[in-house]
Amino acid sequence: MKCPFCDYDETKVIDSRPTEDNTSIRRRRECLKCQKRFTTYEKVEDIPVYVVKKDGKREPFDKRKILNGILKSCEKRPVSILQIESITDDIEKQVYNTMEQEVSSSFIGELVMQRLKELDDVAYVRFASVYRQFKDINTFMEELQKILKEK
C-alpha cells in the first residue's frame, strides 16, 4: 500500500477491525518511511450483474426497480415495508448467488411473483397483471382460478 503522504511503497498494518455494517475492514496503517498514519478500507469487489430484458437490451441490475414494483403491487395492502425490503433483499441475494454476469428479466420477475404469492394474493395478482401483460379479462380470470385452486 502506497503512503498518501510520501508515496513510499511499504507500510505496516497497526490495527484491523470490521466496519459497523460488517461489509468492509478498516485498517490503520503506518508508513515505514515517514511514520505518518492513515486509514484504508478493504471490501469485496462487486461483480456487476446485468439484466437482459425481453427485447434483448442489457442494463445494470438495480434493486430499487424491484423495490418500486413490489411497493406498487402492495399499495393499500396489509404488507409492511420491512416485509417488502426483506423480499427485495432476498431477491438481490438470489440474483448475485447465481454467479452469472447476466440474468434475464423473466428470472427476476418469477422470483418476485413467487415471493408475492406467498405474501399477499392481491399484490401477487397486481404484479402478475403487469408482468405477464394480461391481454384481457379472461387471462386475468385464469390467473385468479389458479390461485383459488391452490387455496
UniProtKB/TrEMBL annotation:
One of its GO terms (biological process) is negative regulation of DNA-templated transcription. Coiled coil: none annotated. Pfam families: ATP-cone (PF03477), Zn_ribbon_NrdR (PF22811). A zinc finger (unnamed) spans 3-34. PROSITE patterns: ATP_CONE (PS51161). The keyword Zinc-finger applies. Keywords: ATP-binding, DNA-binding, Metal-binding, Nucleotide-binding, Repressor, Transcription, Transcription regulation, Zinc, Zinc-finger. Residues 49-139 form the ATP-cone domain. Its cofactor is Zn(2+). InterPro entries: ATP-cone_dom, NrdR-like_N, RNR_NrdR-like. One of its GO terms (molecular function) is ATP binding. Binds 1 zinc ion. The keyword Aminoacyl-tRNA synthetase does not apply. It comes from the Bacteria. Belongs to the NrdR family. Negatively regulates transcription of bacterial ribonucleotide reductase nrd genes and operons by binding to NrdR-boxes. This is Transcriptional repressor NrdR. The gene is nrdR.
